[in-house]
Structure prediction request, 1788 residues.
Amino acid sequence: MSLFYKVNIFLVQLPAPKRGEIVRQIGDALREKLQHLGRLVSLEMGKILAEGIGEVQEVIDMCDYAVGLSRQLNGSIVPSERPDHMMFEVWNPLGVVGVITAFNFPCAVLGWNACIALVCGNCVVWKGAPTTPLVTIAVTKLIAEVLEKNNLPSAIFTSFCGGAEIGEAIAKDTRIPLVSFTGSSKVGSKVQKFVNERFGKCLLELSGNNALIVMDDANIGLAVRSILFAAVGTAGQRCTTCRRLYLHESIYQSVLDQLVGLYKQVKIGDPLEKGTLVGPVHTQASRENFEKGISTIKSQGGKILTGGSVIESDGNFVQPTIVEISSDASVVKEELFGPVLYVMKIKTLEEAIELNNSVPQGLSSSVFTSKPETIFKWIGPHGSDCGIVNVNIPTNGAEIGGAFGGEKATGGGREAGSDSWKQYMRRSTCTINYGSELPLAQGINFG
Amino acid sequence: MSLFYKVNIFLVQLPAPKRGEIVRQIGDALREKLQHLGRLVSLEMGKILAEGIGEVQEVIDMCDYAVGLSRQLNGSIVPSERPDHMMFEVWNPLGVVGVITAFNFPCAVLGWNACIALVCGNCVVWKGAPTTPLVTIAVTKLIAEVLEKNNLPSAIFTSFCGGAEIGEAIAKDTRIPLVSFTGSSKVGSKVQKFVNERFGKCLLELSGNNALIVMDDANIGLAVRSILFAAVGTAGQRCTTCRRLYLHESIYQSVLDQLVGLYKQVKIGDPLEKGTLVGPVHTQASRENFEKGISTIKSQGGKILTGGSVIESDGNFVQPTIVEISSDASVVKEELFGPVLYVMKIKTLEEAIELNNSVPQGLSSSVFTSKPETIFKWIGPHGSDCGIVNVNIPTNGAEIGGAFGGEKATGGGREAGSDSWKQYMRRSTCTINYGSELPLAQGINFG
Amino acid sequence: MSLFYKVNIFLVQLPAPKRGEIVRQIGDALREKLQHLGRLVSLEMGKILAEGIGEVQEVIDMCDYAVGLSRQLNGSIVPSERPDHMMFEVWNPLGVVGVITAFNFPCAVLGWNACIALVCGNCVVWKGAPTTPLVTIAVTKLIAEVLEKNNLPSAIFTSFCGGAEIGEAIAKDTRIPLVSFTGSSKVGSKVQKFVNERFGKCLLELSGNNALIVMDDANIGLAVRSILFAAVGTAGQRCTTCRRLYLHESIYQSVLDQLVGLYKQVKIGDPLEKGTLVGPVHTQASRENFEKGISTIKSQGGKILTGGSVIESDGNFVQPTIVEISSDASVVKEELFGPVLYVMKIKTLEEAIELNNSVPQGLSSSVFTSKPETIFKWIGPHGSDCGIVNVNIPTNGAEIGGAFGGEKATGGGREAGSDSWKQYMRRSTCTINYGSELPLAQGINFG
Amino acid sequence: MSLFYKVNIFLVQLPAPKRGEIVRQIGDALREKLQHLGRLVSLEMGKILAEGIGEVQEVIDMCDYAVGLSRQLNGSIVPSERPDHMMFEVWNPLGVVGVITAFNFPCAVLGWNACIALVCGNCVVWKGAPTTPLVTIAVTKLIAEVLEKNNLPSAIFTSFCGGAEIGEAIAKDTRIPLVSFTGSSKVGSKVQKFVNERFGKCLLELSGNNALIVMDDANIGLAVRSILFAAVGTAGQRCTTCRRLYLHESIYQSVLDQLVGLYKQVKIGDPLEKGTLVGPVHTQASRENFEKGISTIKSQGGKILTGGSVIESDGNFVQPTIVEISSDASVVKEELFGPVLYVMKIKTLEEAIELNNSVPQGLSSSVFTSKPETIFKWIGPHGSDCGIVNVNIPTNGAEIGGAFGGEKATGGGREAGSDSWKQYMRRSTCTINYGSELPLAQGINFG
Prediction:
């Protein structure tokens, strides 16, 4: 009997609604420290304060949501075809969930996973990003305090500040039935291989390469503001950052002109300072990656309309960049993790959808339109193939009530709302014969 | 645009309830040929006629079920936290589903997959077992006729009679977003690796190693009949065949004596002949595998209580076998695909559950008891870790209304009822802003 | 123990999926007689043949749907806040369902009710309209044959051809826990009073007074064709017939002109004859009612734009009629059961919605628009208050997958799809303590 | 436009998750005053302090639950049978909900209703019991403060301290689409009549007459403790109080002896004092009603085994009473609202179930057994006909995650968990045609 199992018993012995009460208290503990934690996120990750606070608020929202969920982790009673038989679908905890998160959302992604994992009855083993240890430690301490106040072992929620070797250890550990990983498609693919080899389960949130389409019948003002937020927010380091912009030819130049104008006014600087819209990219490596990306872009024929350079200063600041480029350029199919937006021209919705779907990734996507027909085609079988399919809002800004995640190289996992909780549990189809006969399914007679 | 895509358009253009009507007609076509097809299954696979007919009946039941489902592939409307926004969860077809099935259920497993895949709007590419081509061809022809009668291209449902090279081609084909594979954990693991490398999805139904527990308070008569069916039915070649029997020490000898007595009376022979309970194993290779297994069992200290030999005759007949063995023997952790039952003694429910859960596989399991406490523990968080968790019925005999499949090395897929259909579709979280403001989630202000 | 109860035992002893199989056979029996029954409906009720056949097809569709439902009458397993407790929500049959239907859909409404009632495990006591006895008898015989073929007492499905005295007897019979009534609000209200006095349940489908709104941004061609079908189809004798037309002032005259033109071309005559669009009204009383209505309309200032008279001939033929009238006229708030359409002018969506909602009835409603904002406002909290809220389709034409029914004086019942089946069952919240302690909810200690 | 409507706009303009945040704050406000409010409930109603606090805790639990629910008031997207059509099931607020509660749960029942009504977007008009004005005022003030803190009109939640005339005014008010009433079947029936006459909706929680069955195979210790709590708790003034006890003949005398022994030790007195198990009945009228009841019981042949008298003292104290009586006595079919338990002998489960179901009321019921067969029969189609069907726990003690309410003369309403929220909303089936064709359902061609 593993140590994990022994710790998990404490949690499983609590009925789900009691686990919900623990998560409610975690939410209250975070609520009390909202401003402080938000600043810490901003300071350590580099995103602007409003986003730092917004990220913590999202964890709090998840806690509130999970409290309600703790009374709704419902199984089913299914009509049996056999007399004196009951058929149930029962959901039980997995035991332990490994959670590996990335630097760009140092606590929100943990929150999505941990809130649900805990109400489902699972211990959590968390590896935060190696570059955001303070957030990892702060969140862990808050949770530990709540657990202890409730006479529960704080080992129910364990965390690590460390690098790839710890991630690999989690991926390979047979005691961890589920590994939830957020990061690049490349690393995610390796994690998946390790986990599958030991017949574990993965929940993957991998690369995005998110397109935004503006049709000729769109509300242009709404579209322009959305593009700005989607492309330069968090210095282009959201998994849902808009990286590809498809503009209908009839409004192409006009939208582009407005965008370039706005880009030039964006205030770049200290993320904690009021008025700043764009902070630094996360690390020096990110900055170098940006520079390398710009050079590749140029070599593939991309034309820099604005931005395109790093900013010489103390921090890792880079310029929000708009690139006019052919949709055939191979760089357009990749995720460059910074504030670089590729702009391309389209003639029809069909063409736009085909281009939207033409990349390996399948996270988020957005269309701006005022036609019902376009809306319903876009969300239908021949529309966007992404996990997030928006209309008249940016590619980002998911609400916790919906399922968050993407298709194809984005990994297929779903977090937060809807039935995402099912991934954190195991399902049993149970048939109970309470009579004294032995009828077989499909009316088979035997012996 | 791939050929698959072009064919798929015919299906997707049909609204789901119209696809349901196609599947209803397939059900009627099978119903008309129930006896013939049942005989063919029996002849080609080797299972007894009642089981052959039962297998076809299961496909018919699936058709009926899928018709209803075609009006219930429901998405959700989720309350948005933003004014003038609608949030939807929409389900769309994947396009094409690859289905690779095994010899032991040459048509039922196809039925589980194809009925749901079709109403969900997917084309099906089926590879049947290389040793059951007649069933593959017969079923394919029936379906093709229905498609053609409805002016649909029969390419909507394509099948192959072939071996591993075709399976590998399907697994590697980027045009097939989902591959549903039924077979051994070893091969399944390879399929999964191929599919994941191209960021496709798998639905795996792999090895089982199913235990049946008889507690001291059980209805012994019910238990004995169930064990017989579970262990020797289909000559031990069901994925849900009972392979491990845990008997409470107080009833150990008595149950064993009754079982050995029954085993000796089991009629082995022509599966099409009335009264036969056990037909041949499927191929000469199966027969050799049985012999090899018995020899390994002996080398690990297993004591043959009855059976243990192949039967010298024209067909591939082997004796249903009971083995008394230590639960530590490594052979007990593996799936020997034939009518071999390992018997072990237990003292408590806790011990029995720990042994039940101690193997890599997690498909089916059963307890016989008359205590509510035992029932609810068995199906609860510290109970059986299998996908199928039965009480007072054999390890087999799943009904289509429930989800069929197992955990751990069994692969985690779920077929037939419950929300299994979701695996055959892709999910989008859609947020539609129909107002003219741009509120951001989590109350973020930007710019 | 009542006779009903004794008959019901036969049905309840069949597991739900077996009851589904009975309903499947009923569907097949109807399918075989589709043309004949369709003609009979047309002959006896007076609707045109296409509609007669469509009505029978709807019953067949319901049968297919109910078959799938028979494996999905799912209860829930709800997480309990107490250790060693299971909480279930279980659905059980009511026993007997009384179904009282109206002349205008002599078999579809029975089908909605009976298919679901039967798979839920209820006997059915049906009173058809006194003026459509042939359809009642034909349908009853078909169902009886299926029941008998399955060795079930045909008393499971009983029917009456009779009038109000039988309806009253059903409403007052304490052995009938649920009475499903379709008819006028006036009679429905009486039925409800009788049933409630004995603490039975009602499912009411009462009067409609359905409005169709055409906005200035609508597809006018689509709107005009829809209005024609909605207002004159079935000679205006559908519960979902469009009776009120609100036209935006900017397209008012143009739509009206087109409509009046079309009305003049409508072929009135023998409903069984090809090309006929409008048959007779159902009875001489209906014809007189039409005449009386027209006279009231005139007295309240209504201006007849086309039609307005009965047709002198053998049958009960009346002219499809368009009336220009003030929305303040009291006659607009009532349901005149014939092909009379009130036309009124509106300036804004808000005004149109307020008028739509200003009548006592709340069955169906429709808006024609090409603006997403209008669509989502129309279906939202400040939109139409009806049970059926359509966009760019007529007020009628419900699909069986959705729930059919209306609010306010329409009675609040829901039939056909969605979770309508719950009305045909009783719900129990079951908590099972399988441990040996006695923890109380809300953490109360007692004694 | 009514005043209600104008106030309601404030609530409806808040998206549901924001309404959830209001309810979360209400929960926190109550949490802060838990002890005080619990004492007030105890003081004013007369229940013991543990129950008073438990009752307030239940409201807090409901708040937490409703917060989660505010993101899960999900509609559905249903597959349409027509191309280019979307079918939705949408849920919208009703506007205003009238809530009429009884003295015995002066705040819990309000909590069940108000939490759900508010997150669903409805204003609440509450009439508390005329004899518990302090609790009504205290709760109202707490809620008003929260509303005001959030800049919402406190008129969103309005309350009255008053009698039948206010209840009647609510029942007859056409601006209140739903009236939730808790009280006697007699008054409830009148309320229903008033509400139905104006085509409003009712949610009724009326009389209970709850039976507890002890089978010969039961855990007797558990049963006896449960009976004591169920029958004398809250001085027999819960709607779920156990009023009828059916003991298997083989354990009849033994259980009865233990019960009588326990009844004699029950401490009656000041409900706020530690150790008290039974406080006074609510009013002098309750006390007189008890006396009258005892006299009727005696006149019908009931034999008082213990208790049977009022206690001469300052408060309205009465003795917990056990009565041996024939199940034919008419008094057994009625709800005597005090601590009087009728005991009867049964021989079989079938007999016990028939007796359980033989009264007009259908609220709660309980069986004590250790046989799975008995459990599943009890909760099945031929088992208890009540809304609450327990096993091995008392008739009371419902958890908020399940639906609370009963059948037959208990009124059929359901409050708290499961899908009870649907009663607080109106449902629309919406079909949207976003194409340019006009296909009709059931394949009808028209014109």
